[in-house]
Every structure is written in C-alpha cells, then in structure tokens.
Amino acid sequence: MITINNIMSVFIYEIASLKSGIIINTPKYPEGNKVVVRLGRLLGDLVANHKFSGFASHSSTCFCSWCACPKANIQKLTIGRLLQMWIFKDYSQAFNDLKNEAERARMVKKSGIKWSGLNRLCYWDPVHMIPIGIMHN
C-alpha cells in the first residue's frame, strides 16, 4: 500500500542531504557560496498537517497535535498535558517498530501518534513546527 510516507521519502532524503549544505557557484560568488536547507514549518490544513506529520486524525480519540486532551474532554475547554518532541518521537518510533496493523491501530488510539518520515530529520519537532489550528486560539 502506498502511503504519504512512501511518497514523501524522496523529499525527506533530499532535505536531509542539504542539512550540512552544498556549495553553489554563481557569477557573484565564483568560488562558491554555501547553501543550507532546512524545513521551517509545516503549513497546511488540519487534515494534511496531521497526515504528513504523524498525528492521528482530528476525529480520533487523541486528536490534538499540541496537547494530550482526549476527545471526551473537548467540551471542558481545558488544556491537556502539553506534548513534547521526545514523547512524540518515542511513540512514533514505537509505532514504526510494530509490524502488526492491529497493534498499530491500538497504539494510535492510545497515543494519537503514528510514524512520519519527517522524523528522519534530526531537527524536526512536530509539536512546535506545526502552527496551532484556529480552534486552539
């Protein structure tokens, strides 16, 4: 099955290879100028951001990419425990290590986190590099 991670793997590979920079010769810099490329923020609608970054759907039990508020508490308008990059990456790696789809589904229901190819970028922080949706403002 082709997933978003299969499609974006080439993009992630290219971005990762440009992390340390490449030398580009131009008329202004005939000896070359170092260019470094990094992903800044992931901008898109809620559905695309969640799918691309490894968060569960906005309709899942754990729907928020910013805090751990369960769907049952959505009406209380209180912030859940704030997510942190290392927690996300631990859950994401554990999801990736699972080979059984039923186990993966249980894990996503429990944590709201799936694997994303963006985790291959050492500086990728899904909690802070995705703007908060309008419902949090």
TrEMBL record:
Protein name: Uncharacterized protein
